[in-house]
Amino acid sequence: MAIIKYLFWLLYRIWFYILVAIPIIIMFPLLIISILREQWYPYFFKLARIWSKFILIGMGFGYKIKRVEVPEQNESYMFVANHTSMADIMLMLVAVKNPFVFVGKKELSKIPLFGFFYKRTCILVDRTSVKSRQAVFLQAQRRLKQGLSICIFPEGGVPEEDILLDDFKDGAFRLAINHQIPIVPITFYDNKKRFSYTFFSGSPGRMRAKIHNFIPTEGLTIAETKSLNKEVRSLILEELNTNLIKK
């Protein structure tokens, strides 16, 4: 019985990477055209949302998005969420319709095919380099001026399996305050259970996300970064704990 489980998990992982590749190959000409100019990014974003839905449905993930507040078109936001799964990127793209740019670790750019587009459309950061982290602010500023939003997983990585929610880095909140854009907290409830970074794990099933009330930053100063960080983290942590109690 154990052998069957491990075989399923192995094939499930392989199937995931096949699903990642198929729509990229099919839409390759359109994807290439959409990244030729930065101002064409919204078209790339629409293609990325199709890619995400294809993967989630193909993996057997029935996603459900609860929106307490809905982002307005042509407005910029800072989207933040807990990070537990390889599928977080896909669920974020499905949950949010406003074009946004991911700030993500540069290591993902090494993934074949996916990495080609990742490094050309996302803001890459080397968290071990102060210079790289500073460059993120300049790149984010440019994209925000283009009317886009930014998405950051503020834990700065995926926590260990036994950690419900890791400490948040300050970068997302400092950026939001600098540009006076609202924070949009998002909770992913089931992603760790569905498809965590542990290789031999995962299964089809529901994936729920909740977009909370926005947290304004107008009038806030950099000195209030830590308190804003704590407020957002407490909100998501309370939501995760409440979900555990309901189970």
Describe the structure.
- The chain contains nine helices and seven strands; from the N terminus they run H-H-H-E-E-H-E-H-E-H-E-H-E-H-E-H.
- The longest helix is centred in the N-terminal third of the chain and has 25 residues, at 2-26.
- By secondary structure, it is an alpha/beta fold.
- The protein has a seven-stranded mixed sheet, sandwiched between helices.
- The chain is globular.
- It is 48% helix and 15% strand.
- Helix 5 (114-121) links the parallel strand 3 and strand 4.
- Helix 1 (2-26) packs antiparallel against helix 3 (41-58).
- It has helices at 2-26, 28-34, 41-58, 88-95, 114-121, 130-145, 171-179, 191-195, 225-246; strands spanning 61-67, 78-81, 100-105, 123-125, 149-152, 183-188, 205-211.
Q: Termini separation (Å)? A: 27 Å
Coarse structural class = alpha/beta
Give the proportion of residues in helices. 40-55%
Strand fraction equals 5-15%
**Which stretches are low in confidence, meaning pLDDT under 50 for 5 or more residues running?**
none
The coarse overall form would be globular
Q: Please describe the biggest sheet, giving its number of strands, its sense, and whether it closes into a barrel.
A: 7 strands, mixed
H/I helix tally: 9
The number of E-state strands comes to 7
Order of helices and strands: HHHEEHEHEHEHEHEH
Instruction: Strand order, main sheet: write it out.
Output: 1-7-6-2-5-3-4
**Overall average pLDDT:** 93
